[in-house]
Amino acid sequence: AVLLHPLGPPDGRVVEVSWPELDRTIEPDHLTSVYVPRLSEPVAYELARLSETADILRAQCPWDREQDHRSLVRHLLEESYEVIEAIEELPADAQQASGAEAAHLEEELGDLLFQVYFHALLAREEGLFDLSQVARTVNDKLVSRHPHVFGDAVAHTADAVLGMWERRKHAEKGREHLFEGVPAAMPALARAAKFERKLESVGLGVRAATGPAEVGAAGAVLLALARRIAAAGADPEAALRTSLGRLSERLRMIEERAVGASTTLTALAESDPALLQAWWSEPSGGE
Q1: Distance of alpha carbon 41 from alpha carbon 51, whole angstroms
Q2: Is the pTM of this model over 0.85?
């Protein structure tokens, strides 16, 4: 912003200031003016424009009129991958991104956002819900699952936050199985990573990689294993899915054992993590 003070007298000053310094640069009075070269439009304004555009396209574009939730799935997936690609093109320090790199990510995020709008528009037509309900639901969920920010809970590390998130999610949805809700259609490797995050939430995760070098070495091992399995005429994806199935069954056995002891994995993770770890480590537990 630009401060003009005092406005009118010959000793008036013109000072460019950053927003945090707006009330600290001079002592304002009735002769102080503020000039703002340009303000960005409010977020809600642009989102409302996008909503109107989506409505117009749905009504007037032959392609948009033909779409339904299922026909849009591949577009949702493609746009997600394009966002990932744009993110991976950013330098390690995103603040050093070029204008072209930033513009690319901005564009791809917009394409993905439109997919959300389109699905919400279809749901409104079907009498299921609308965009405002989508926004309300995610906002309420974020508040509920961040009790360390909006409540009295304590979480000093990112790992503690993730564990709290998974436990509250498990409790809110009334799920009996820790892996319930992990889509079976996910690629096997992504599903394995999701399983690991679920296990970490109850203290059953494996030792984490210590740094970029170890992660890079693990990637090489994964590639080598995939090539060996493929060379044997088998499908690496199918092999991993089979192992994930055995891991899921092993966890179910532990969950049933917890039910027999009138408790749950989540409760044990908080009250007696050593006992839960002992159960998990027993050879008879499966794979």
Answers
A1: 16
A2: no
